[in-house]
Amino acid sequence: GEAYYYTGDGLLPSYSVEQDYSIQYLSLGIMNKFDIVQGFHAVVGPTLDFKVGDNFPDFDDELLPLDITLMGGLGYTFPMGLTIEARYKIGLVDIFGNNYSTYDDDNYNDSDGNYNDVILNNVIQLGLAYSF
After folding, report:
1. Could you give the 3-state DSSP secondary structure of residue 45?
2. Where are the beta strands (DSSP E) in 55-109?
3. How far is CA 15 from the centre of its chain?
4. Per residue of the chain (132 residues), what is the pLDDT tens digit?
5. Is 1 a member of any domain?
6. Distance, CA of 107 to CA of 98 (rounded, Å)
């Protein structure tokens, strides 16, 4: 992603970083499935996501090892047993624990050195399954 940080004296970016961030999680969830009409269903439930890796070598200690998320989605099961599903998952915990203290500018940190922006995980999942 690309991040821009602005100063108070204009609308031009004063600092720009382009970096692809990747955090890998092992997710454990309890999904509830609700049949809507013949073939269509909805799923919803919480998950616990345990961090197992990332590409943040300089900030590895800053990232929280656990994320709590809420997931919801819709799916369709065909008569022959093939199921397609789309899910959206949002994190409920700031991945940095609201303690990301890399930037020294007071516009981006409070008096305790905490990063002012909350950064939540957002995931879109597409699934394909076959029941026999």
Report:
1. strand
2. 66-77, 82-91
3. 24
4. 444 444 444 455 555 667 677 888 999 999 999 999 999 999 999 999 998 988 877 766 678 888 999 999 999 999 999 999 999 999 998 887 765 555 555 545 555 555 567 788 899 999 999 988
5. no
6. 15
Distance CA 24, CA 54 (A): 6
- Asked, for residue 85, whether it belongs to a domain, the answer is yes
Taking only Cα atoms into account, the Rg of the chain, rounded to an integer number of angstroms, comes to 20
Euclidean distance between CA atoms 26 and 50, whole angstroms: 5
The verdict on residue 18 lying in a domain is no
Whole-prediction pTM: 0.69
12: in domain: no
The token pair at 64 is: 């929280």
* Rounded-to-integer distance, Cα 56 and Cα 38, Å: 46
Domain that holds residue 33: 24-130
